[in-house]
Amino acid sequence: MPPPPRVLISEKRILRRVGALAREVDAWSRGGRVVVVGVLNGSILFLADLVRRLRSPVVLDCIAASSYGTARTSSGRVLFNRRLRLNVRGAKVLLVDDILDTGRTLAALSRFLRKLGARRVEACVLLRKNVPRAADVSARFVGFDIPDCFVYGYGLDLRERFRNLRDIACAPPFENETRMKTARRQPEKRAEDLGGFPAGARPSDGG
Ligand code: XMP
Q1: Does the structure show a pLDDT above 50 at 202?
Q2: Spatial distance between the Cα atoms of 107 and 113, rounded to a whole number of angstroms
Q3: Is residue 72 a part of any domain in this protein?
């Protein structure tokens, strides 16, 4: 039997934070129309939960881009493999992704959307990994800050599995090899103790 997932962020905390993010996005849009562009495949559950909570008028499109492929370390190259159907010229665009890791994906997509004539491009990510960024990019809306561990569940995959897990889990150290430095240094710690806090909150604030 496979070991149970090391839960980093529970479903309850995810949904509560997604509600708060939706309110932040609504405050930003001030009731204006937002073109939401979801980044497939990892953001799909986050995207669905987020847009259902938005009160702003929304149009929705998706793009597939990844700097990961099937490996668990960034390839350094961003691949776009789906075109946008919506015209973003002059629009306020909210780019929704699952996780900000090296930043290459969001940097490339933001550049791409600006080239298409978007008036504003802001990123909304559920997770922001605590690693040095390879690209100069930041997200305006962030769900949780997490440590450098490979995460899966709630849309994110571990070798294409577990996207339907309701919680977000941290892959065990032997799965992480190069990416689970924190956990390797602290092998006795539970994943909950390693982080996963609402962005901007101190660890003691809970979530
Ligand atoms: P970059 O490095 O461009 O990466 O910021 C963003 C994309 O890489 C994928 N990614 C992950 N996928 N667990 C995953 O399942 C992770 O820990 C992880 N880190 C990065 C993800 O597709 C994201 O959009």
Answers
A1: no
A2: 10
A3: yes
DSSP letters for 41-91: TTTHHHHHHHHHH--S-EEEEEEEEES-TTSSS--S--EE-S---S--TT-
- How far are the Cα atoms of 29, 85, 117, 181 from residue 92, in angstroms, in the given order? 8, 16, 10, 38
- Residue 77's pLDDT is 72
Name the percent of the chain lying above pLDDT 90: 69
Please check whether residue 97 lies inside any domain of the structure.
yes
Question: What positions carry a catalytic annotation?
Answer: 101
pLDDT at 160: 93
Using the atom order of ligand 1, give the atom closest to the CA of residue 101: 5
The predicted model gives 125-149 an average pLDDT of 94
The residue whose CA is least distant from atom 7 of ligand 1 is 66
CB contact at 8 A, 47 and 99: no
The number of the ligand 1 atom at minimal distance from the alpha carbon of 171 is: 17
| 3-state SS, residue 27 | helix
Whether residue 150 lies inside any domain: the answer is yes
How many CB atoms lie under 10 A from the CB of residue 12? 11
Nearest-CA residue for ligand 1 atom 23 is 99
- Which domain covers residue 111, as residue numbers? 6-198
CA–CA gap between residue 82 and residue 201 (Å, rounded): 35
Distance 101 CA to ligand 1 centre (A): 6
